[in-house]
Design a protein that fits this description.
2 domains, transmembrane helix, membrane, 5-stranded antiparallel β-sheet, MFS transporter, Growth Hormone, Chain: A, 7 strands, 9% strand, MFS_trans_sf
Length: 510
């Protein structure tokens, strides 16, 4: 087969694999992108902070079960083949996402709503647990020797592009609807649209051929009959599974989720920036940073995977506190000059049946163009504030509309974090594929990947938000930086293990 034909074939493989993987990541990230809205739909509204933490916990649950999906679908992939396995994961993911968009709210069906969301979120996690290993293995097994980093890095872009597409669909949906319409029913549209994208991707994947490496192994009768036992019951292979997890993927996972998800959550809930602005900022940074996945994947073919990934981790853990302090102070209204004559204070009452709320609104304008709004809603009983657990029952919502200069400062700071991500994530698929033989590759690489990303990375938004909330309640003036100790600690441990024990050469297994 000619070189040109080879290149045409692998581009088709990448296109078909990437589209399906992108859609699965889109499905998975829609939930996280709409976490603030979903917290008001599927959980009790009396305690917004608890509702948001519950939503993050449900979001994290999808990550926690990913290793189980890796084991289940990885086994299937090593027995029946890569193609049919990740076709099944695509359908499962798309169906679960579609159904989340159909679930009635908490006000309608009570605690059944969060229960159903949790079940579907778990199904999403299982599906994604089987998807990534299949797609990465499939592409790697089509790639020429010495070029796996470059070709698999195209698959690595799909996670970030999936997040970008999810943000884009949300912004477009909001642009066609009023704020009230989106809050009432429009948030369901991104979930429901998923089913159409999944159908198109399914038709494309249906016509794909099995990977040549697996086909050869099957023809020669060398495929595994018990991939789980051979992957994790074999001490020699298990050593590489553990090394992949604790020396590379664990750190990659926290760097990945810090730059893309914690940054989003931080800007929305700690910095109180308007949701639409946050989505726009993150979208621009993702668009500017995504090509570097391919750059660092290609570089890892030339200089080795190890130090490209580890240097990315080191830069991240050394600079996170500086970056997030700069982000927070950039929009901190205490650092800005208020135009006092433009301050608007309004008090009103809202009566809805037997419920009465007092709504106190303060709007402030600042010399640099920043706008700030705080709405305090108190629930009244017989004309007085309702007391819950010895405290006044009130909901305080702060919103900051940032100016153009601050916008680009934040884009730059997020972009730096995206670069860290591309360094650790660009080469990781090739790194994992090269550690394990064909007959157990799907299973062996999927587990450390999804434990590192699903457990260590997936828990990051919830753990970090909890640390920030605790520090704030404890009166810590730098409460907004406390959530970073989690990714910094995990990345530091991973860097040390990886630097000592990982070789810069692959195992050269077949």
């Amino acid at each position: 087969m000619s070189e040109t034909t080879n290149k045409k074939t692998i581009w088709k493989v990448i296109g078909a694999s990437s589209m399906g993987t992108l859609i699965e990541w889109y499905d998975f990230f829609i939930f996280g992108s709409l976490a603030v809205v979903l917290s008001t739909k599927f959980f009790p509204a009396d305690n917004p902070t608890a509702a948001f933490l519950s939503t993050l916990a449900t979001f994290a649950a999808g990550f926690v079960v990913r290793p189980f999906g890796a084991l289940f679908f990885g086994r299937l992939g090593d027995i029946i083949g890569r193609k049919y396995t990740f076709m099944a994961t695509l359908v499962l993911m798309g169906g679960a996402t579609f159904l989340i968009g159909c679930i009635p709210s908490y006000e309608t069906i009570g605690f059944i709503a969060p229960f159903l969301v949790l079940i579907l979120r778990l199904l999403q996690g299982l599906a994604l647990g089987g998807e990534y290993g299949g797609a990465a293995t499939y592409v790697a097994e089509h790639a020429p020797d010495g070029e796996r980093g470059y070709w698999t890095s195209w698959i690595q872009t799909t996670a970030t592009v999936g997040l970008f597409v999810s943000l884009l669909v949300i912004l477009l949906t909001k642009s066609f609807l009023t704020e009230e319409q989106f809050d009432e029913w429009g948030w369901r549209i991104p979930f429901i649209l998923s089913i159409f994208m999944v159908y198109v991707s399914y038709l494309i994947r249906k016509n794909m051929d099995e990977s040549p490496a697996f086909k050869k192994a099957k023809d020669e009768g060398t495929t595994s009959t018990n991939p789980l036992k051979e992957s994790f019951g074999n001490r020699y292979n298990m050593k590489f599974v553990l090394l992949a997890l604790f020396g590379a993927v664990m750190g990659q996972g926290v760097v990945w989720y810090t730059g893309q998800f914690y940054s989003m959550s931080f800007m929305k809930t700690v910095m109180n920036i308007e949701s639409d602005q946050v989505d726009t900022l993150l979208g621009i940074a993702l668009l500017l940073g995504t090509p570097f996945f391919v750059v660092f994947g290609w570089l890892s073919d030339k200089v080795g995977r190890k130090w490209v990934m580890l240097i990315g981790m080191l830069l991240a853990l050394l600079s996170y506190r500086t970056i997030y302090d700069k982000m927070y102070q950039t929009t901190n209204i205490e650092n800005k000059q208020e135009i006092t004559e433009k301050t608007i204070i309004k008090a009103e009452y809202k009566v809805d049946g037997n419920k009465t709320d007092s709504i106190y609104t303060v709007q402030k304008s600042f010399a640099d163009g920043t706008e700030f709004k705080q709405v305090t809603t108190r629930h009244l009983e017989n004309g007085t504030a309702k007391i819950v657990d010895g405290k006044i029952s009130e909901n305080i919502k702060k919103t900051t509309h940032i100016n153009s200069s601050d916008k680009w400062t934040l884009v730059g700071l997020i972009w730096i974090q995206i670069i860290f991500i591309t360094m650790v994530y660009g080469p990781i698929a090739a790194f994992l594929v090269e550690m394990f033989p064909v007959k157990i590759r799907y299973t062996s690489m999927s587990l450390p990947y999804h434990v590192g990303n699903g457990i260590f990375g997936g828990l990051l938004p919830a753990v970090s938000t909890y640390l920030v909330t605790n520090a704030k309640n404890g009166g810590n003036p730098e409460f907004y930086l406390e959530g970073l100790w989690y990714p910094i600690g995990i990345a530091a441990v991973c860097f040390i293990i990886g630097a000592i024990y990982i070789s810069n050469k692959d195992r050269n297994v077949n």
